[in-house]
């Protein structure tokens, strides 16, 4: 079974510059249907390469597909009171007790069940990772981590002020300092229905890019 982990790329307040139009269509008197669209490399379901945090850090060319495709462990962090909850080392330990973790980690909160991703509430009151919990992840030596919630507290502040990589610990502790890739704004981890799966994540082949929209899928 394949589980689609991506959100649809369509009108969303957070990505107001997203634009889609027919470049060619029968309606316009053309012979072919061709759609044009404008996308940012970090819009909708996407992955981050370290270059996202500065031009001196490694980009997409530095990472083989194996770094973000392969066996994954689902870490169940679900709880009834996710609102503004900072996940701790204790939460991570509890969710992984007695398990050997794979090189790709899928951090499952099911936040979407408590808040709709189309609302500002999804971002403004999201659970997030504490720096200590991120250091815990580093010690497990994964190559890639995917989150079903906006994992840094200050992601919510991005629309009001200029937020830097240093304000976002997953982007420094995991991505910039340890080359652990991030897959952001994915969902449906509840539909995987297993502790482990095969994670398939394919960004478009834009050379030397800082990140890119992905189609991420779990094979169970
Ligand atoms: Zn990103």
Shape: globular
How many domain regions? 1
Give the overall average pLDDT.
97
Main CATH class: Alpha Beta
Poorly predicted parts: none
CATH H-tier superfamily = Putative cyclase
Give an account of the 3D structure.
By secondary structure, this protein is α/β, with parallel strands linked by helices. The chain has one domain (2-13, 41-219): 3-Layer(bba) Sandwich (Glucose Oxidase, domain 1). Helices cover 14% and strands 26% of the residues. The chain is built from four helices and twelve strands. A seven-stranded mixed barrel has the order 4-10-9-7-5-11-12. It has a two-stranded antiparallel ribbon with strand order 2-3. Strands 6-8 form a two-stranded parallel sheet. α1 crosses α3 and α3 packs parallel to α4 (169-178). It is globular and about 65 Å long. The termini are close together. The relative contact order is 0.24. The model has no long low-confidence stretch (mean pLDDT 97). Bound molecules: zinc ion. Zinc ion binds at residues 42, 46, 48, 52, 184, 211.
Keywords:
220 residues; alpha/beta; Glucose Oxidase, domain 1; seven-stranded mixed β-barrel; globular
Condensed summary:
The chain is of the alpha/beta class. The protein has helices at residues 89-96, 121-124, 131-139, 169-178; strands spanning 2-4, 19-24, 34-38, 46-48, 70-76, 86-87, 104-108, 128-129, 144-147, 181-184, 196-203, 211-219.
Please render the helix and strand layout as text.
Blueprint: E1 2-4, E2 19-24, E3 34-38, E4 46-48, E5 70-76, E6 86-87, H1 89-96, E7 104-108, H2 121-124, E8 128-129, H3 131-139, E9 144-147, H4 169-178, E10 181-184, E11 196-203, E12 211-219
Helix pairs in contact: 1-3, 3-4
